[in-house]
Amino acid sequence: MRLTIVGAGPGGYVAALKAAQLGAEVTVVEAGEVGGVCLNWGCIPTKTLIASAELLLKLKEVESFGIELGGQPVPNIEKIMQRKNKVVETQVKGIRGLFKSWGVRLVEGRGRLLDAKKVQVDMPGGSTQVIETDKVIIGTGSRPAAIPTFPFDGDRILSSDNALTIKAIPRSMIIVGAGVIGSEFGGIFNALGTEVTIVEMMDRAVSTEDLEISEVLEREYKKRKIKILKNIKVDRVETRPDGVHAFTSDGKELAAEKMLVSIGRTLNTERIGLEEAGVEKGKRGEILVDEHMETGIKGVYAIGDCTGRILLAHVASTQGIVAAKNACGIEEKMDYNTVPAAIFTSPEIASVGLREFQAKEKGLDCRIGRFHYRALGKAHAIGEIAGFVKVLADASTDKIIGAHIIGAHASDLIQEMAVAIRNGLTARQVAGTIHAHPTLAEGVMEACEAVHGEAIHMPKEKEKNS
């Protein structure tokens, strides 16, 4: 079976490798670099910058660990970017090596469907190539949304892509949007020494997360002197010789050297031959697919951001595996019920399952257990006492239906809760599993104990007067 995949992002390249493992003859068409946005402009480069930023913050506290540096650490943005580029290059080489190992053919150029069985590739230099295929997987991804109010110029007004190639640390920065991207970059630039102001139209930062998570992040960012202006919109922007001036909905004028805009993404579903192939799109331009990741055209699948579902790399990868299996004749359905998410702010945020407000909207009766990092010996040992673990369990079955963590290594700790929810485990089952000491994972165990008011390292609640 000949399979052609348009796009080599975290969905496309994973789909290619899975299909090759299953015996398909796989061709991947990519206009940029393998790894897509995630590897080249998203997940990996930003987390590499975050690693430098967090190390810098830690070094500023080094004396509290009994270590004397003899001077203040100074960020070198050129070397930080060099390290970021090296990490990305290493990962790119790894994917290309995997393609070679599994016999996946990579064609560099822009892919476009001619029909369900033909993909045209516009090659660099102007030539074209037509690939005949049996089945197609589309994984063309997304890009930062271009908004007329904020015309990107790559100098004063930046997209997240522009921020990853910045050559000097700005003295000040306005960030539009306190979602995942805005909050992460706010933490990065603050650590590097930039005066950061984040403007958010919603009533809280990271508004997709549990309310208590937002409260802790806002508190910790306030300690770091990161300003978060909520319930405010930027109506107009002017670039002047001294920087960027933003005029807000509450009548104020904000000024900074740079502005970073992080308020949405546009799906890459234009000019890729969807109309010619008869592939249907939704109102947002998303490619419509079923639970098998197949479009309305038999043998044509779509995965990742271009489907408009959950715009996360690991979701795209899972969709890629599902699509590859179905294309190879193995029935597999996509399940979105247990999707962990992580936000690499400082402290980190991670969640899986229902938020408390979502449980209430569904009319679910649930018990909630919380356990704070400051009660963990390991948290004190590593100097990371900010944050908590919150677990939601169904009141009648005790099955875990949601978990939320803010604190050190939250992105790693959430996996235990993802496994628990996917397999229908109860709070008592997780609480009754021996957890190594001293670890941060004990916070997950104790939060599950707290669901029933039995956390060992929490004071007894005082009885309320009737």
Could you explain the architecture of this structure?
Helices cover 31% and strands 23% of the residues. It contains 14 helices and 23 strands. Strand 19 and strand 20 (349-353) form a beta hairpin. The N and C termini lie far apart (72 Å). The chain folds into three domains: 2-143 and 266-327, FAD/NAD(P)-binding domain (3-Layer(bba) Sandwich); 157-263, 3-Layer(bba) Sandwich (FAD/NAD(P)-binding domain), CATH 3.50.50; 341-450, FAD/NAD-linked reductase, C-terminal dimerisation domain (Enolase-like, domain 1). Strands 3-2-1-7-18 form a five-stranded parallel β-sheet, covered by helices on one side. Strands 9-16-10-11-12 form a five-stranded parallel β-sheet. The model has no long low-confidence stretch (mean pLDDT 96). By secondary structure, the protein is an alpha/beta fold.
CATH class term of the largest domain: Alpha Beta
As for the CATH topology of the largest domain, it is: FAD/NAD(P)-binding domain
Sheet with the most strands: spatial strand order? 3-2-1-7-18
Work out the helix count: 14
Main beta sheet, described? 5 strands, parallel
Number of strands: 23
Which segments are poorly predicted (pLDDT under 50) over 5 or more consecutive residues? none
Helical coverage, percent range? 25-40%
| CATH architecture identity of the largest domain | 3-Layer(bba) Sandwich
What is the count of distinct domains? Answer: 3
**What Rg do the Cα atoms give?**
24 Å
Question: What is the straight-line distance between the termini?
Answer: 72 Å
CATH superfamily of the largest domain: FAD/NAD(P)-binding domain
Structural class: alpha/beta
